[in-house]
Amino acid sequence: MAPKTRLMVCTVVVVLTGGTALPVAASSWTRGYVVGTYQYAFRYGGRPDFTRGAEIEPGVDCPHGSTTNFANPDQTRIALARQKWRSKQEIDWIVAPPGLDQVRDPGFTRLLIWDRAISYRGYKPGIETYVNPWAADDPGQPEVTSRIAEGFNLDGKINPTDFVSPDGEKGIDNALYRAGGCYASWRARDLTNAFSAALHQRYLEGGLYTMVIRISGNQDPMNDSDATMEIGYSPDKIVKDARGGIAVDYSYRILKSAQYTKLKAKIKNGVVETEQVEHLHTPRIARYYHQTGDTNLTKGKIRLNIVPNGLSGTGLIGGYRNWRDLYVENSFPSPRGAGFADIQLHEDHIALYYALRRKADGMLNPKTGQYDGISTAYRITLSSAYVVDADKSVKIPLQSDFYPPELWRRKAFESLKANIIKGIEARIPQAVPPGILEAGYPQLEQKFPVGLPGKDFFLKTLDRPHYPDGVGRDDDGNPIDDQGERIDSRGDKLDEEGDPLKPPQARQQVSNGAPATATMAQEQ
Question: Which residue in 158, 247, 512, 520 has a CA-CA distance of 20 to 30 Å to 47?
């Protein structure tokens, strides 16, 4: 990507005829942009004068504050007590493991134990909860109560439960915000400082994926009644300037294959409004490679606000997304597993599952009579760029080209999604596919402190996934046995570096004939 001298995008030519200047129709123009920030269009409603420590305060969006799931032993006890099949001793030991203060890293040890325990909260033992969320009780999800939200009126109606936009437009559909806007990791005065939003931003700027937009027309870049917008994936990483911001006017290629859509648009005073299309394909918001892919918004549309000089802009992307896809993508954001993330972020994605299903408001399924989609909006910022067509031979690169374990993680994630959706639809418990580090396996087996008194109790009592030797995988994609030990293709144990724990013993050759000494004795 090379910087170029910025060109004027709109010209007016005049010709002199009989001493009179006559304007000729404006020339065609094109403007390109690279997306600099990409986040859910959640709106914070807390009081700016609230200063009670690091607590994220209650507000008009979330009167009871942010989620506090698994924030302390009491919260974890409440979650585990919902399983009637657990004994009081089991719950007591999980919540406060005996001898925890004697180990080197008590916080991490407790996290691993809690992770394994909360991953099995079904109606009976042995059902992995995050793969089968329908099999667990609804823990309850604090939902947004504010009437103000960003987004679009996707259904053309004004319903009592709809939002009002910050500029007064009624009928705004953004049910995802209603369902998940009180999550602690997405709530902050400046959303870019919220934990999850900050992680998404880091990986966007770090080159995990790049999204670009190109707008063109034949009238004026700020006012055009017949413009065209293209949005899609770029194989080029975002370029930073000397201050760490998004560099202006660098070139990015756009791929016209997957994650690409071409839309009609109208521009009035710098506001670009696209048509509403049946399927809007764009790069999907992600912070790990296995989450990347096509957003595939149904009844999608885009609105941009471009500054007069064309160098930057802000905007919204909206439409209906399949709520099952959103559940999977948000529940398994980390290779560590869903329970691990829930404990760290004080969230409960089982509650999110029920909230998404409850708030679904689009994509009516005629067979079930239920909504498959939930209205969603994303907020973006733009920096001026030169967006050019990529060669047809260019494909979206595989992350495994740079880091091989990402390929099996992605395959495992796709298998996981298929199992979750199958279980939701059939109400039949599904297994955890190998390669998903769910329920703290094999981390608990590999990193459990030797000196903890209850080690055997936790390893034998708490459920976890089981696989034949060589089928399971560790963090780096290496084959392991059912106890979490790294093994080679013959089943021999290896150390962390992949070397044999014990030198292989020479195999004794067996002869079909009688021993030579016996033959000699008979001859004598």
Answer: 158
